[in-house]
TrEMBL record:
Pfam families: LamB_YcsF. This is LamB/YcsF family protein. It comes from the Bacteria. Gene3D superfamilies: Glycoside hydrolase/deacetylase (3.20.20.370). It comes from Shewanella benthica KT99. GO terms for biological process: carbohydrate metabolic process. The lineage of its organism: Bacteria, Pseudomonadati, Pseudomonadota, Gammaproteobacteria, Alteromonadales. Signal peptide: none annotated. InterPro entries: Glyco_hydro/deAcase_b/a-brl, LamB/YcsF/PxpA-like.
Length: 248
């Protein structure tokens, strides 16, 4: 099981440094922060601010790279050469690493963002580029990726340590992929519904996918999207649930 600073029975992560209003408050309840590093958003100033907050809060710090596509917030597939993508990811992750180094913080993991996250989880070639970049920068960096996806075993076979991630606020399809955001119901808007999914994940009970299947996921970490309007209220609910000391 992934250790975490607050003693939760499971890691709780959020994507930060994306211009959301609740980063500082979220850092009080989460245990891992995925910090945007210039691909979909984020710059030197936002990285420094978020790393300082994360360092004060004692959470695990991770890089959150994406396709270099700020116009679409990294949420659309991108036509890009392998070399261009490799170079961009290398620069993004290294930019956050440099900020961490300058502030005496340790970078713990890498979690890709948006379309790159979803595609690399199922595309062996894209997964290979991501693995290559991480190994070039620091092979001890953990890779946070979609639980149950082919990239889990692919990355393990290349010697990386994996954090399998499930989502509190997103629905799934039968193949364990996230339902596309344009599908009705893909984003869980109600805290009560999100907590129901969290309870199913904690109890290792199957989730009902949007295409009608039952899907069982084993997760090391639960994600909250930091840019959602209800991210903070949901994070507090999950934190209270985990703090209650109930066993998985």
């Amino acid at each position: 099981m992934l250790s975490n600073p607050k003693g939760y029975p499971i890691d709780l992560n959020a994507d930060l440094g994306e211009g959301g209003a609740n980063d500082a408050a979220l850092l009080q309840v989460i245990t891992s922060a995925n910090i945007a590093c210039g691909g979909h958003t984020g710059d030197q100033s936002s990285m420094q601010t978020t790393v300082k907050l994360a360092l004060t809060s004692g959470v695990h710090i991770g890089a959150h790279p994406s396709y270099p596509d700020g116009e679409n917030f990294g949420r659309q597939p991108m036509v890009i050469s392998d070399q261009e993508l490799l170079t961009s990811l290398y620069q993004q992750i290294n930019s956050l690493k440099a900020v961490c180094d300058s502030l005496g913080a340790k970078m713990f993991h890498v979690k890709p963002h948006g379309a790159l996250y979803n595609q690399a989880a199922f595309n062996e070639h894209l997964g290979g580029i991501l693995i290559d970049v991480i190994k070039r920068i620091d092979p001890t960096l953990k890779l946070m990726i979609l639980a149950g996806s082919p990239l889990v075993n692919q990355a393990k076979s290349h010697g990386l340590t994996i954090i399998e991630e499930a989502f509190a606020d997103r629905r799934y399809l039968a193949n364990a992929s996230l339902a596309p955001r344009q599908m009705q119901g893909a984003v869980i808007e109600e805290d009560a519904q999100a907590m129901e999914q969290v309870e199913q994940l904690l109890a290792n009970k199957p989730l009902t996918t949007l295409d009608g299947a039952l899907l069982r996921l084993r997760a090391d970490s639960i994600c909250i999207h930091g840019d959602n309007e209800h991210a903070l209220s949901l994070a507090k609910l999950i934190s209270a649930r985990l703090t209650a000391g109930k066993k998985l």
